[in-house]
Amino acid sequence: xxxxxxxAELDALVIDDxxxxxxxxxxxxxxxxxxxxxxxxxxxxxLRHIRGKRYHLILCDYNLNAKTDGQQLFEHxxxxxxxxxxxxxxxxxxxxxxxAVASASxxxxxxxxxxxxxxxxxxxxxxxxxxxxxALLPITKALGKQDWLAAVQAAxxxxxxxxxxxxxxxxxxAQLQLQLGAVDEARGVYEQALQLRPGLLWxxxxxxxxxxxxxxxxxxxxxxxxxxxxxxxSRCLPAFDLLADAQERLGDTAAAVETLKQAVQAVxxxxxxxxxxxxAYREGDLAVARQAYAKAYKxxxxxxxxxxQDALVLAQALVEQGEGKEALTLLTEAHARGTRGAAFDQVxxxxxxxAWVQTGEAARGLAAANQALEMGGTRKGDFATxxxxxxALATGQDARALGLMQRALCADHEDLRTQRLxxxxxxxxxxxxxxxxxxxxxxxxxxxxxxxxxxxLRSGQxxxxxxxxxxxxxxxxENTTVLLECTQMNCMWLRLNKCLEASxxxxxxxxxxxxxxxLPGHERVAQMRRYLRETLATLSREGGFSISKELA
Length: 552
Description:
This protein has 552 residues and is mainly alpha-helical. It is built from 28 helices and 5 strands.
């Protein structure tokens, strides 16, 4: 082993379905000084290796001649955070495929290697990427610690050097400002990038996200439309997604479905079909939803991209189209393929209950509905809760159905998507006139309980207010209004008691992490994060101890 070689300590993984190509790539890696090389022939084998060992470099062929191609594997690894921050991912592809692969990808690898490749090609890309990593190391280290302010400071230091990594640092800074909720500052950085390089795609997409975070959906829509009309942006998937989201929030749900149809034409992946199916189902366009989910279900079979939800939503769409028998066949097939688990089985029972009632087996449907309902319900406004509610409606259990729907509405009383789904479910069962009253009742019920918690707070009963608001959170763990109130009240408790109670600080951080998933880039979340930072800094100064030490 050449320990004095700069790449001698790197561990590499080669993913290629052809043994001869594995040997070639392994030899080329040896030539550049990388001796610790593993090789696998499938996505499943790659996942097992990556979960069991830390790699610094992965070379993956795009065409794996399997259900999962190299791009899908890469996206799965990134989306599920299976790649460590210091792992480089190089995609190997034929030159004839490069344009299509690179221009329409959910995630972009660190480098593309065009066949036929040489050891020199690998070394050149590796050297460039390692230089980039070293130059941006202070930023990535701060990001790894989730210290966003330190990361911004590190980005400013790189920007001050005005070297070849300036634009990379500018991109990091803009993303960080957006994550911190400093929407105006982020917008300014993105505009600076566009002044330096007009038409820069990542800056335009970032500007769309800044508009979205500020609630400026019309501006987001206009910019996305403009980008998609350019040659470079015509296959930009984030632009399609941001446009569809803006259209739906502006009330034009049919246009959102059409936008996602165009995205599917650009990239007909299972994930794209799934996004189209979700939007079409919410819109009530069951024909499009059925077609999209059928393709997602078929395309995901045997792939790491497969999701049990595909079979469930497809079956529900079939039932709502009056195809109960076909829905039952689909669910039986999904079970036979090993798609199981308590959550899947419960929703499958709820859909089967509807299908059996529809096909004339009312007693069997009632038994299935009761079995599903007795398994308990989620406290979310999700597909599962509404499938259970539909099963209850189909079997004449209206009170149970309304209770489930109220729970779904209270899970996020401001979510118009859930309100539309509830309205459609009631309408489908001849009870559409009850929808608005139910929506108003759910919203008022939650607002009343929130008001009571705030009343306790105003009267100086902070502990009692916390008990009340956290009881609401236990009932509705994804209600963003309740999460924000819990965050604020716990910070107030820390300030008023002048105590850095570690468990409470951890609780607040958990609330913020959940909020950032539910409301990414939202200004109110950033305000709460700033409030926590200010609280910790104030208590640290007054207490004479360091925050990190006290919370260790």
